[in-house]
Amino acid sequence: MDAAAALALVRRVTESPGYTHEMGTRVLAAEPGQADMAIDSRPGVLQAHGYFHGGVIAGLADHAAGRAVTTALPPGRFAVTVNLQVSYLAPAEGETLIARARAVQTGQAICVAQVEVSVLTGGTELRCALATVTLRSVELPGSLVRP
Amino acid sequence: MDAAAALALVRRVTESPGYTHEMGTRVLAAEPGQADMAIDSRPGVLQAHGYFHGGVIAGLADHAAGRAVTTALPPGRFAVTVNLQVSYLAPAEGETLIARARAVQTGQAICVAQVEVSVLTGGTELRCALATVTLRSVELPGSLVRP
Amino acid sequence: MDAAAALALVRRVTESPGYTHEMGTRVLAAEPGQADMAIDSRPGVLQAHGYFHGGVIAGLADHAAGRAVTTALPPGRFAVTVNLQVSYLAPAEGETLIARARAVQTGQAICVAQVEVSVLTGGTELRCALATVTLRSVELPGSLVRP
Amino acid sequence: MDAAAALALVRRVTESPGYTHEMGTRVLAAEPGQADMAIDSRPGVLQAHGYFHGGVIAGLADHAAGRAVTTALPPGRFAVTVNLQVSYLAPAEGETLIARARAVQTGQAICVAQVEVSVLTGGTELRCALATVTLRSVELPGSLVRP
Question: Is the dihedral of CA B41, B42, B44, B49 positive or negative?
Fold first, then answer.
């Protein structure tokens, strides 16, 4: 898939009705093996102290990882998360949460992406989490049913 | 904290305006060291194939783990997630997503909870994910600022 | 595979020349979906403070998980670790390190095991670590070459 | 601590009697926040197919991460692993296993390191694993006793 097709695919999946649309997820950039996403601050994505909730960070990292890997797979295949690991480094306080996912392995069966999550505040980005996501490559659509 | 105080605390944190309220998170049960949560299916929590999104599962597991641990800590302390690990076992297809978190370690510095996530469909529960959450115990409120 | 065949397979793999033999790994029990292993204390498995080294704990958990899953797979297949996650709960100080692995998912592609690690000292067992291991099921022998 | 002191400390800890010495661990380089380690191939570090065993990879990553973080901490403190996560990317087949650890967070309580593990074969390095290690910073020596 070329860069334009990758961006179109990532936008379509992210902006369709569902969780990522509900969270206000915006696609910043995408090309095969890469996907950058953002969510702007609003009460519905924060925890009690006014930081982005850990679940929002985990969800954005998971989604970005899935898009980074799927755009690097052969046609007719997509990536399903089997393991998500998030290290929280600092409180995610700021205006916009940004996740940058990079595919580091796209095997026939197993794929891995790493994601750097930062928070933008007053024009400055601070890294607030790192994620490693393990995915499997499945054929559309039947093999989705069971891991 | 006794069981009634634990339940009241967990309800207050979960139902206050913010991410968990926005996701429609319901508290099923809570006592010191334990917290059970649920989210009912609706389009805003699903992914493209109609399953609960991995980010919703991760967020519910994280929140339940934090409540299970915080209710087991001495007064004036609460738990902040430092590491979240989710293993996805099966597509989360069903009416209600349920997370049951248990504190397995509540040290002075580091705490660990395990979470079993299942999906309820037609009266049957199917396990769909397992999470291990590492948290640190911090004093209210100053020590929240930096890990 | 029946229980006797599982035990024989696990013993053969564990006691053959290589890492697990070098570490002094003993098979305590094994049946399809389960494997219990032990390593006795000696200087070569300890860290600077006299506890079992974290690498020994991780290695024992990984090996036990692989055996628990492989014995539950159809003939001709075996399990290869793709992700290992270990939570260290307490210093592993004692005479014998014990890992008990249980397969919790044995799908066609992806398998998951959980492992409880404890240390035996003066007749008492103390839990010192929990591990979650994600594996993939591969055919013997060609598919081992690349993930 | 300056670079020479860091290297001396890392060498002393790694080469003292115990697990890392037994595994034949060599220090390639170390400075505050960084530690590079290697283990040469021999039967006692391999699994059944002749690759470096996953436990050896996990142990080398854990040890390198601990050294990278400890050398970046204030005097009188050292790092203890609380969570180890390893993603295995490719079979570790080759002459020498190399782990390069970098501290990415050294907070007062919690520290995080990332480790890239590769295998050297015929002059070429192939990345075979990525690890994320969460550690806590403790005072020497009393606070080691319980997490």
Answer: positive
Cα(B27)–Cα(B5) distance, integer angstroms = 14
**Cβ contacts from A onto C, under 8 A:** 34
Which residues in chain D are closer than 8 Å to B146, comparing Cβ atoms? 107-108
Which positions in chain A have a beta carbon within 8 angstroms of at least one beta carbon in chain C?
82-83, 85, 105, 107-110, 134, 136, 146-147
Angle at C24 between CA C22 and CA C25, to 5 degrees: 110
Neighbours of chain B (3+ CB pairs under 8 A): A, C, D
Instruction: Give the ranges where chain A is alpha helix by DSSP (H).
Output: 3-15, 19-22, 54-70
Distance CA B62, CA C43 (A): 39
Smallest Cβ–Cβ distance between A85 and the set C85, C109, C146 belongs to C85
Helix (H, G, I), strand (E, B) or coil at D145: coil
pLDDT tens, position by position, C105-146: 998 889 999 999 999 999 999 999 999 999 999 998 644 434
Helices A54-70 and B54-70 sit at what angle, rounded to 10 degrees? 150
Measure the CA–CA gap between B110 and D81, rounded to whole angstroms: 11
Question: Phi and psi at residue D146, in whole multiples of 5°?
Answer: -140, 140
DSSP symbol at B17: T
What are the structure tokens assigned to B127, written together? 């396990």
Look at A134 and D85 and tell me if their CB atoms are within 8 Å: no
* Token couple for C26: 């003993």
Q: What is the distance between the terminal CA atoms of chain C, rounded to a whole angstrom?
A: 26
CA distance B85 to chain D (A): 9
pLDDT, tens only, A112-145? 999 999 999 999 999 999 999 999 999 986 444 3
Closest-approach residue (CA) in chain B for D110: B147
3-class SS at A3?
A: helix
Interface with chain C: mutation pick from D84, D89, D139, highest number of C CBs within 10 Å: D84
Closest partner residue to B22 among A44, A48, A89, by Cβ? A44
The reply to whether the predicted model has a pTM over 0.90 is: yes
Number of Cβ pairs < 8 A linking chain A and chain D: 29
Max CA separation in chain D (angstroms)? 46
Asked whether the CA dihedral D5, D11, D12, D18 is positive or negative, the reply is positive
Looking at this protein, which amino acid is placed at residue A74? P
Q: Distance between CA C85 and CA C93 in Å, rounded?
A: 21
